[in-house]
Write a structure and sequence with these properties.
The two termini are 31 Å apart. Strand 3, helix 3 and strand 4 form a beta-alpha-beta unit. Helices cover 19% and strands 26% of the residues. Helix 7 packs antiparallel against helix 9. The chain is of the alpha+beta class. The protein has an eleven-stranded mixed β-sheet, sandwiched between helices. Strands 15, 16, 17, 19, 20, 23, 24, 26 and 27 form a nine-stranded antiparallel β-sheet that branches. A four-stranded antiparallel β-sheet has the order 18-25-21-22, with no helix packed on it. The protein has 13 helices and 28 strands.
Amino acid sequence: MRWQSSHAKAILVVLVCGLLTSAEKFANSNLGNEEASSGRVEKNVQVPMSDGVTLAADIYFPAGKGPFPVLLVRTPYDKTTETGVGNRPNVSSADFFTNHGYVVVLMDSRGLYASHGAWRPYVDEAKDGYDTQQWIGHQSWCNGKIGMWGISYPGYQALAAARYRSPYVKAIMPIGSQSDNFGSVWYTNGILHLAFALQWATMQEAVHEKKTLASVDWMKLTTHLPIKSSLAELGVSSPFLADVIAHSTYDDFWKQMSLHDHYKDMDVPSFFVTGWFDDLMHETFTNFTNLRKLSPSEHSRHWQKLLVGPWAHGDTHITNLEGVDFGSQSSVDLHALELRWFDYQVKGDANGLDKEAPIRVFVMGANQWRDLTEWPPATERPTSFYLHSDGFANTRFGGGRLSPNAPKDEPADHYSYDPRNPVPSFGGHGCCAGEMAPFGPRDQRTIQGMLPVLVYSSEPLTNDLEIIGTSELKLSFSTDVPDTDFFIALSDSLPDGRSNLITEGFLRARFRDSLEKPTLLIPHHVYQLTIPLWETAYLFQAKHRIQLQITSSNFPRFDRNLNSDKPLGEGGEADVRIAHQNIYHSKLESSVLILPVVPPDSTNAQ
């Protein structure tokens, strides 16, 4: 769903600077009757949708006489910039794939750039994608075989259209794409992705309205209360953003764009690619695991592939992320990856893809690739590390400890969360709004120096410890407010003092039992929350420490919980309350971190 930095720049540049009703009726268009020639491009071809609206596509042809296999990308980020979607600067995807015998079709989403119609994010993409696939399949230059790919929102479009099962589509390749916009992109466990939401929705609406977006102090805007009234400060009114804020529970607004009920209808081989620090990584796992289980045919279930590297959103070529060097082997040529996938699935080339493991993950710390046959690995052993302290785990200078031994009688830890003085965003999963919410495996020592942050560390490890899978924190707590948040981060504490973030988890307490029907807290009542951390693969080396931090804000990446009973967007300055948090780790009320430990030599390292 998110855009890459190149996408964002392209959007900013653009900001500054009687139809037939069935796609099949256009099967014999003039374009379809033309013989392809090397390097020929048809610009802004108007492709009819089943409701009569036409969408604009640029069509790139290979040399020679067709028909040809076709690769399709549909995008809200301007099809003229999407030729770089292969993630290699200075290499055009259109040129790359036409040189390998494919027609490439790049299309603007409905209501944006050269396409007509109303811009309704996500809602129209499934049907528009299917209509486009059907139109392509009827063209004389198409040999009846289509592949579809895309990074972020374009990847979502490939998945969304799959429910309609176009007979022409032989494979898709979604890269860093979501399954459910309430699950990771706009909200996570009930917490609004504030910095992203304000920027993305406003900029896309400006494109639709063909308006120039006035200069906005985004950081200042994130502090505006109530959140819903901040929209008046933007100069461009986004109905979608207003709906995002108004619909703060998982209701029909979100369900209409969710893929969760459609996996059983998606009968297509899919190759998923993401990074351990991609803000859509968890959603990518959701797509992969559900299609592997629910896709209606054995062929489709068998041909679900997953690749996860030490990257952020779409950046498969990098080897050093925010100062952490993962080695030259961590870089992947996305163009070559795409070509091999589509050559096998669309062209039918016997290139050995069928001999590979379905899952390939990069184990950070070991800086090695692992081939897996299932997720999570069958060799995973949930291993408990209990929280301990003498009553003061605040900051990295406190006495917070992680131990395999269960606690006995220990005093609780305490910290105060004041929404007027939140803990800043620094590290973790991300892709966009990086100036306000830096992402990646960043050193957490500065964050861990703040009093509202509890830090628990293991003793130096005597042996390497590898985790592959999903961790979770079972947290016993009480508070004196009707609602509050918890942000959890797992880090590797190095012998030189650095604490590099590995993965994280978050939860708004009112959504502890249901995303559809939130329930407020009873002040001073002791609860136990289970907070899942996002998937990861990491080797803690001997002499390193496992480190866990707990706090109640991560701003402005996420909106601040005002600790009140008001719904999101409605709370103002008068509703701000300071939450006094108690974290328990005693014999009766323990808190425990559970890690997915895999034994040495239990997986295939490369």
